[in-house]
Write a structure and sequence with these properties.
Layout lengths: L2 H14 L12 E2 L14 H13 L3 E5 L2 E2 L5 H6 L11 E6 L1 H10 L2 H10 L4 H6 L3 H11 L2
Antiparallel strand pairs: 1-4, 2-3, 2-4
Helix pairs in contact: 1-2, 1-4
Length: 146
């Protein structure tokens, strides 16, 4: 999975799915429309779909398709349920960023923390770091990093 794509996608969604001043929710974001935006020109369409699936599995976003929620699967279910049971990625729509996702975005915006995370957890270890709640993760890292 492209870690920078997941990061950029989560930050983009947190900015574009905020309620208006009057309290109205914005329109959901269609993942298939994102590759056309300049912010995502460096990423392949498949990277964005994979990042959306990953963010959903970590419960950082609510991902739907045609108004039907896509349930997150536990590791046991992941192998028991064939991947073909998931809806086509091109139909993915994000309705909102979860509270955990917003907390994590607040930490990601601290660019120095993101750079420290990349140095401390290179490669697939970053996936494990993303599954830890943002507040706990930032507290632990800031206490243990020079």
């Amino acid at each position: 999975m492209n870690q920078n794509c997941a990061r950029d996608l989560l930050l983009y969604l947190s900015e574009h799915l905020r309620p208006t001043a009057s309290g109205k929710m914005p329109r959901p974001v269609k993942i298939r429309s994102l590759p056309d935006l300049p912010e995502f020109s460096d990423y392949a369409r498949e990277d964005l779909f994979e990042a959306a699936q990953y963010l959903r599995s970590k419960k950082l976003i609510q991902l739907t398709t045609d108004g039907i929620s896509i349930p997150s699967r536990s590791p046991k279910q992941h192998f028991a349920v064939p991947a073909s049971a998931d809806p086509a990625p091109k139909a993915y729509v994000v309705k909102q960023v979860t509270a955990a996702g917003l907390d994590y975005c607040a930490e990601l915006r601290k660019n120095t923390l993101w750079n420290r995370l990349l140095q401390k957890f290179p490669g697939s270890a970053m996936e494990q770091a993303l599954s830890v709640p943002a507040a706990l993760l930032s507290r632990l890292l800031l206490d243990h990093l020079p």
